[in-house]
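pipeline/complex-builder :: batch 7 item 3
reading input block
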Amino acid sequence: MAPSQPDDAVARAVADAHREEWSRVVATLIRTTGDWDLAEEAVGEAFEKALRRWPADGIPTSPGGWLTTVARNHALDVLRRRTSEQSKYREVAIMRSLEGEADADVEPLAADDRLRLIFTCAHPALPLEARVALTLRTVAGLTTAEIARAFFVPEATMAQRLVRAKGKIRNAGIPYSTPSAEALPARLDGVLAVLYLVYNEGYGPSSGDAVLRVDLAAEAIRLTRLVVSLMPAESEARALLALMVLQHARRAARTRDGELVTLDEQDRALWNAAEVAEGLELLASAPGRGPYRVQAEIQAVHARAVDANATDWRRIADLYAEFARFSDSPFIALNHAISQGFADGPAIGLAELETLAASRRLEGYHLLPAAQAEFLTRAGREVDAAERYREAIALAPTTPERRHLERKLAGLPGAAGQNPTPV
Amino acid sequence: MKYMMFVSTDATAEPYDAAEDNIVEWVQDVDARGVHLMGERLRPAEDATTVRMRKGELVVTDGPFTESKEWIAGFDIIDCRDLDEAIEIASKHPMARFGQIELRPFWPLELDGV
């Protein structure tokens, strides 16, 4: 240890430790105490103590080990106080297990603990929104206030959601463990679904205050990296990471002066080349044909095209057909129809979209008329296209999307894009 | 932990097929594992009687207390390690397939101080 560290070096070291060690330390404390609230409190206390002590004592060589020891001692103090107030057998037993571990090296079990934590937070017996909140709070180490802001709910609502989730874990007997081999595939799917939901929440156009909002897409990628590192043999986890990284690589190209830029109009030089390469490499090491694998391959086709015109739409249409076998979602059907239109011409695209429109499964969804408008434009039917764009504009859920469609309408050849003259 | 398994019908489940009903094997399995405390089939809702005391008066009515398409067809009480084991046990019950099963943890009254 080097004594008397400058404050900014300490702040950085604590921030690094928070990012890299939080889940490990919390996971260990939950296992040893069996008490989620106590574990959280003790780990929070350990990080505060690091901020106070490291400037004078120096940054420890193993910040994770230091934090675990301090958190464990804090948990012991709390339990001793509780047991002196009223003797409780359970807490005495927990204290014995904590004391027994004080000198033991906890590292060999640490990886298991984080997996336990990840699987417990994503347990299907918890409501989906609680799984998301608990994963972000406990595995990612975000504060309740940060999670509340990210999902645009009051902090008290988010706090209540977390309290209820922890209550259910305790009362329903949700185990702090990894699933059995028999249950693993379905449970891993559940974990990946939570991570992808977090990613998509961060990916979508934000209507809130972007400065105060944590980057959920980046958090989801960080968590998925952790899952991949803990379960390197799980191909779908790797494929999900590839899918996220390939989409995330395009973030700088996705907006221009605050306006939405769709994939076909993006400046591909702005795509993060290192991330694209990483995504493609991950995909190459993810065998199997699961749903994330197929979705990642679709993104990889885009990533490999030097420009929008070079996109292999035939391949994308085939991949959407394959993806549709996993889910009969109308959104997948829409993407399949669009890719067929780009592969085989606007007449085919319009016919496919008409079938989808007739099914009424996407009623009120702005991207259906927007896609029809796109193919009508390509077919030279600007007047019909303008009508569809106006329909899509009326349905657009966010301002950036509405403005994007208004620009498409205004860009139609001839007078079609002009607003009709009021009579 | 002790759990009550409410075994219920469910209109969305596949139709009951007596040839595929493996309830005997299920009971043998849970008994052999030592996780089954008791279980019974229950007469249908039309044989149910609901009892209420209202303002000191006894009110007895015909039928179950909730009107729904689903009705409790039986129950089992299991005592197992945790919810994951309870889910595994419930998933193998034939009515997980032909109906649905609700797992409710016991909530023991703490009467030590009384």
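note: Chain B touches chain A at residues 1, 3, 81-84, 86-88, 103, 105, 107 (CB under 8 Å).
queue -> next item
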